[in-house]
Amino acid sequence: MSPGKTIDLHLFLCCDCGRKLQVSLSPSCLFVFFDIPVVPPLFGSPLPPSTQTRLYSLCVLQPPPAKYGGRHTVTLIPGDGIGPELSGYVQELFRFCCVPVDFEVVNVDSAEDDITNAIMAIRRNGVALKGNIETNHNLPSSYKSRNNLLRTTLDLYANVIHCQSLPGVRTRHSNVDILIIRENTEGEYSSLEHENVPGVVECLKIITRSKSLRIADYAFKTAREKGRSRVTAVHKANIMKLGDGLFLECCREVASGYPEITFDSMIVDNTTMQLVSRPQQFDVMVMPNLYGNVVSNVCAGLVGGPGLVPGANYGKDYAVFETGTRNTGKSIANCNKANPTAMLLASCLLLDHVKLHAYAQIIRGAILSTLSEAQLHTADLGGHSSTSDVVQSIMDAVQSAGPRTLSM
Amino acid sequence: MAAHSSLLSVFKIINPRWNGRIGNTVKVFGTTFTSHRNKTSLTRENIPPPAKYGGRHTVTLIPGDGIGPELLSHVKEVFRFSCVPVDFEVVQVNSAMEGEDDIMNAITAIRRNGVALKGNIETKHTLPPSVKSRNNVLRTTLDLYANVMHCQSLPGVQTRHQNIDIMIIRENTEGEYSSLEHESVSGVVESLKIITRNNSLRIADYAFRLAREKGRRRVTAVHKANIMKLGDGLFLQCCKEVASGYPDITFDSMIVDNTTMQLVSKPQQFDVMVMPNLYGNVVSNVCAGLVGGPGLVPGANYGQDYAVFETAYKEHRKELYEHASSIRNAVSITMNETRLHTADLGGQGTTSEVVQSIMRVIQTTCCSHWTCPRPTPGILTCQRSSGVNSAQTTVTFNCASPGVSLASAASRKVWIYSVCQIKELCGVNPDGRNCWSQGRWT
Question: In what residue span(s) does the Isopropylmalate dehydrogenase-like domain sit (chain B) (predicted)?
Fold first, then answer.
């Protein structure tokens, strides 16, 4: 095991993310590192020196990546609506750029329900890229949302959406840079409902201490790694005193362990109003499930719409990447009108996760140059280009960036 | 009609919680029978007798916390200045205390008067969870089931989006705000969100009725039924049922996350929106932010028998329509023509400056006495009959030539209600604008 981990550490140091990594691991940490391999979900800074208990909770067994002959295998779930179309473009682009990633396609959609195989495939590969799977409202309530089932079974507890104003996209607000971290497994999405008395439905919203601590810890760790200075917890504790009160308390506890990061809290209604008037004031936001859904959609709308924002779901052992706002886009499916940017940026996040940073940077650069220099915008951004035009332009940009093969 | 009003008075005695059920059956007799003071001409006959003595109304005033007391004192000032026949009964609610006595006093006062104006009462998180939010207690006890917020782009306020005109109707008593939480296992909290068929039908009915009365064409239900299938599914189903009885109004539904995204990119597509409690909170705040902030949007909470208004002043009683419109016009003139804005709108004015300006506009245009000179050549004279407190009088006023202030040109006592009426009657400018500004014709 140890030699393999040494190579990983080497790659870790050589990643061209442009930052010098401090490998100032204390002897005890190093010891722990080799004994129990630790690969934090986000590449970046080393573990801060911390108490034994915290190290224990973070030093968990990370299964080795599914990597054979230098190639990674990634589960691909096309989903419904624009999903299959965009997944096709991702595969095409990866093939064009010679990215050493093979896709294992598992179809889970409204026609074919293969969710158990999909989950098993993700467990096997460790990483997945998925489109949104439509939930039919007319089916009985015992039929759980497939997306939700995937998230809870794999315990993908953190949904991270980075809403950034992209150059070349004109929006009403500029300089927006918000990182939204949303609890992904509990809260209002527990799917626990019952009708004891006819005509009266009770939906349960579950907030637990352990999950709140976990997501708060994730948020602060991410903020520290990305060099962010402020974390805002979004809640409604004036009404839901016990539930959101517990969430807020957990955030405060975790905040006390990160003195360099400012922590504050805001009620969700005030947050949405501030987002619409002055979104530049927010830095990192952490919140329970439903508020996360609303806030992330508001932020996505602020930076240009659902076609631009990628999303990532991280768990302890697995990571699943998708578009940030989880839309199926049924109305524009197969019309060659969808914006591929969100899905392609999600695939870049995937590449970063499997440590193919150079490829990720090439593709990301090509996407940004298409948006800003070539100004090829699809209909949702007010332009007239088709999806295939945009993808072609991205491939041209990749090609013109020069050969950057195999020297990594 | 006598039967209706007697039934209504019986309702006032019965516990408001029954009204939902009985109200539905009585609805077959009258068009909008189970309505309340806010309704327009259709139901004026059916409104319960107001708390009115000697021609003056009594309205409960709850200053609340924060900017509430200050703003409400300005309201009192403006009302007194414009001679509005309303007396305020002030009830203080102390948010720091754990007892429920003060809020119960307020509720009794509102029951007595029927109408209230309130500022927000802060809910301190540090108090134990058994202490419920005061605002919530008020709403549930008085069964103020509909929260109506009308978000409109105001002409003088610069915002990123224009032409917004959204009416948000939010269920105000159940949903996530039921305050039912428990911790069965330590470290695991369950919050209950209650959705009932009765309340959902009631709010949907209110929404469609209001849409019809205001001539709106589309009602959108906002929900999250893909996740909360039973709960929001029931809400959606109730909305669909009610929609079938209003074929002239288009009904559609949208998931809350998509709604918030559309609101931020293209808010002009929305007309009337109806939704459960929490989504209503978020969506109304987003819309308030879109039209310029919380300082501009009034909110109203309507129940079967009571109405409580928040954030801005609003009067809908028949006889006070003129006063309402005069104040409203004064506000809009201040905002749009003199462009006196407070800091939240990017301006430099203070609250008192804005209020002074409003009062000045009222003085020059509305509810004032004028003395006019004898008609001289070149001056246009208009004649109009108006009802002042039900008395028919003939009112004449002179439109002076440009540059001359009306105060010096007027020679007869006139009672002017609103700028719009002056412009329209003078016929100086067909579209009624750019005619009257700061006490002079231009």
Answer: 58-358
Cα distance between residue B12 and residue B111, in whole Å: 9
Cβ separation of A201 and B262 shorter than 8 Å?
A: no
Check A237 against B125: CB less than 8 A apart: yes
Closest CA relative to residue B258, chosen from A331, A386, A232, A300? A300
From the CA of A260, how many Å to the nearest CA of chain B?
26
Contacts of A145 in chain B (CB under 8 A): 226-227
Distance CA B169, CA B86 (A): 27
pTM of the model: 0.72
By Cβ distance, the residue of B179, B228, B236 closest to A203 is B228
CA distance linking residue B431 with residue B423, whole number of Å:
8
Which tens digit of pLDDT belongs to each residue from A80-138?
999 999 999 999 999 999 999 999 999 987 777 788 999 999 999 999 999 998 877 77
Mutation target to probe the B interface, by most B beta carbons within 10 A, among A236, A290, A302, A380 is A290
Q: Which residue has the higher pLDDT, B16 or A350?
A: A350
Place of tokens 């009725």: B209
Name which of A299, A294, A264, A297 is nearest A279 in CA terms.
A299
Alpha-carbon dihedral angle through residues A339, A343, A344, A349, given to the nearest 10 degrees: 150
Report d(CA A37, CA B235) in Å as an integer.
50
Numbers of helices and strands, H then E, in chain A: 13, 13
Which chain B residues touch A209 with a CB distance below 8 Å? 186-188
Between residues A354 and A28, the one the model is more confident about: A354
Cα separation of B405 and A16, whole Å? 74
A135 closest CB neighbour out of B188, B226, B231: B226
CATH number of domain containing B259: 3.40.718.10
Instruction: List pLDDT tens digits, range A207-233.
Output: 999 999 999 999 999 999 999 999 999
Do A206 and B190 count as a contact with CB atoms less than 8 A apart? yes
Q: In this structure, is residue B138 part of a structural domain?
A: no
Q: State residue A166's pLDDT score.
A: 92
In a domain, B236, yes or no: yes
pLDDT for B352? 73
Whether residue B239 is contained in a domain is answered as yes
ipTM above 0.90 for this complex: no
pLDDT band, very low/low/confident/very high, at A58 (cuts 50, 70, 90): very low
Span A259-272, pLDDT tens digits: 999 999 999 989 99
Range of the domain at B230: 145-299
Q: Provide the domain count of chain B.
A: 1
Residues 6+ apart with CB under 8 A from A244: A207, A235, A236, A237, A288
**Per-residue pLDDT, B362:** 64
Sort out which chain A residues have CB atoms less than 8 A from B230's CB and list them: 141, 193-195, 201, 203
